[in-house]
Every structure is written in C-alpha cells, then in structure tokens.
Specification:
The structure holds 2 protein chains of 2 kinds.
Chain A (H helix, E strand, L loop, with lengths): L4 H15 L7 H10 L8 E4 L3 H18 L8 H8 L13 H20 L5 E2 L9 H5 L3 H17 L4 E4 L2 H14 L6 E4 H7 L11 E4 L3 H6 L4 H8 L4 E3 L20 H18 L2 E4 L2 H10 L5 E4 H8 L1
Parallel strand pairs in A: 1-2, 1-3, 3-4, 5-6, 5-7, 7-8
Chain B lengths: L6 H9 L13 H5 L9 H9 L2 H6 L1 H6 L5 H4 L7 H17 L2
Classes of the chains: A alpha/beta, B mainly alpha.
Chain lengths: 317, 101
Amino acid sequence: MPLPIKDVLGILVDNLRIRNSVLPISKKTATRWAKKCNIPKGGDTVIYTGLMYQIVPSITALVKTLEKMEGSFLLKFISLGRFANKFINISKFFGIIDKKEVKQHNNTLCIIANLLKKADVDFGYLYEDDLYVGALAYDLGADEIFNKHIQKVFEVFKKNNVKKIITTDPHTTNMLREIFPERLENFDIEVKSYLEVLAESEIKPTKQLNDEIVIHDSCVYSRHEGIIDEPRVLLNNAGIKTLDPEDSREYTFCCGGPVESLFPGKAYDIGKKRIEQLEKAGKNFVVMCPVCYANLSRAINGNVKINDIAQVLNKIY
Amino acid sequence: MSLRINFEVINKIEALGSKGMEKCYNCGNCIGICPMELDILPRKIFRYALLGIHNKIVEEKEMIFSCLLCKRCEESCPSDVPIAENIRILRYYINREEFKI
C-alpha cells in the first residue's frame, strides 16, 4: 500500500503553517555555516539559502523512514502522527540525521559564499531571517498556506531593506523570481542564482584542470529559469570538458526528488534511470541542486562520483 | 458509468487558476516523454477537469501527486499547454475539496 497522501502532505503543510518550514530545523543549525565563514549580517545584497541545503539532510532521514513504512502496517499510524504533529514537532523522530551530510552541505554553502567573495561581490546574510521559501508547499498545491507564508518572507525582506538576492539553489531561485512577483504586490527585489552572478563576474580560474565532467541539469534551472550555459562556461573556462548525457539542457531528465516525500519508491526508480543515463556519458557527475544531490545519491553505485558543482568550482577558482 | 458535466466543479477549478487545458488535442507527446511514465496525465485528467468530474479527479489522486512538475512534457507540447501548472492546480483542488487542507 502506498503512503497516505493526505496525512504525509498534511504533516509537511502543518509544519510550514506552525513552524515556518516543511521540515523544521533550529535557527542555530540553519545559520551555523554562515557564522563559521564569517558572513556579515544584513546589507542591500544578501545571499539567501531558503534553507534548502540545510533541510535536505532532514528530508533524507524522512525518506529513509517513509521508505520502510511504504507497504507496512505502520502506515496506519501516520494519521495519528499528523494529529500529534500539531502539538509537538514529530519531525524530530523521523529517523537519524546524517551528521556527515549536514557538514557537507554547510561546507557547500560556505564555498558558494567564498566564490562570491572571490568574484568581488559585496553581500551579507540575514541569519535568523533566512526563511524557507515554501517551495514544497507550492508544489503540493497547498496554495493558501503558501500564500500566507510568502507574506511573512516578504515582510522579512522589507524589514531588512533587501534590494538584491543571490540564491544558492534552483527551487529558491524559481520561487523568488517567478512566483513571488505573481502573488505579492510590489515585490521588486532583483533575484539571481550564484551561478549567474559568477558567470557575469570577472572571476578568473586559478588553475586549469584536464578533467571530464558530466552535467546533470536541474529541471528547475534549465526549463523554468533558463540557466543552462552558466555552469558549463564556469567549468569550461578552467579547461574542464563538460559532457552532456542523453537527456540534457532543456530536455534534462528529472532526478526524481520532487516526489520523494510522498512516493519514496517512485523517486528512487527515477533516480536509478537518471544514473544509468549519466553513467553512459562518464564517471564524474555534477549537480547544482541539493535535492538532485540527495535523490541521485540514493540511487548511485560505487563506480561513479557525484559532486555539487560548487565543490568543483572551489578547486578551480 | 455515465459521466455528467458538473459546472460547479468546472467553475471551482477555473477559480483556482487553471488555464489552457482546453488547448490539449490529445496528441500524446507528453506521455511519450514523461520520466514517470504517467499514462493518464495530462490528457485524460484534463478532460475530467474540463467536464467537472469530481470523482474521477479524486480517484486519480495518486497520479496527480506523482507528477514531478519537471515540465519536460511542456518542451514537447505542440499546443503550449501549461501542463505542470494545471496539474498543480488540480492538487490545490483536491487539497481543498477532498483533504480539507
């Protein structure tokens, strides 16, 4: 038996309504990376994570738990879980969060910030005001709760006098650039992904690498946001040969991640199909989205390597 | 089973923001290219929505929530139907009318 859509969806959406994130994490956990790499608070231009990198380890833990529940007698208890979740944050009991994964994603965020510094970009960070943007609630069609949540996010931007936002992942980019202006009156903040900012900057590679890297385009970057050439140019400038798998650029094949919370089994199958395509093109893959990273990592085998593009850029700039 | 057009449901779905579903002329390109291989989406499901068949929409909720919203289908749609957004609106409809979320 599949997972009960209503109850799982209900838990995620209730969390956003009550706790400001589909999977709540503490402010301390969310902002640790920025303290560690000394990013000043506030400013006209801010780096905005939308907590995507920070909540992915919680999603991984949740998916592992749900995967075990899919088809088991435990499914009966999910509706009880939803009821309890209104009073206590049950996400804390959703499996064990992998500390290594947390550390790695925090490190990726720090690397992105350092790359922007190397490109002479002046920016700050909102720390406790860096809120989840609501992408999953939007995708799940919980529009009423999503609309209320983005009002809160917009208020935070106004309070901090934010003029420009540099995003670190595709989903946050898409929400802020396409969906917020449609639904919020007077939302006129300029939004760019860090990959666009770097590609437009004067940043020069410090070394040349003779590597070959297979690009897994994110659906949201390539089809929703038209960000296709930027990652390739940044890698090619340092001598790296970029390889396109069978389905790439605007025809890229999804990693499966978008359905991982409701259908972990289906998400795994899609991830597996994509890994097969990537393997035919080469052995080193880069992704530019923490959701792609998490879902493709579940489906990977030992012979190939998957990296966040920021980790590769860090070696060459 | 006979299907009856229900204008109340049609109007509700439209009010939630559906658009351009009627431009679909059943060519099937979307199904050929879908990573999830969803064979009912979007062609049949859009017909149900255009006719306002509430039960059929709810019956297919697993399919509707399985869509990755990856928009690969839209790259190949000769009729430029905003497929993903319409599927998302049908989720919104199910959340409101069925799940009470």
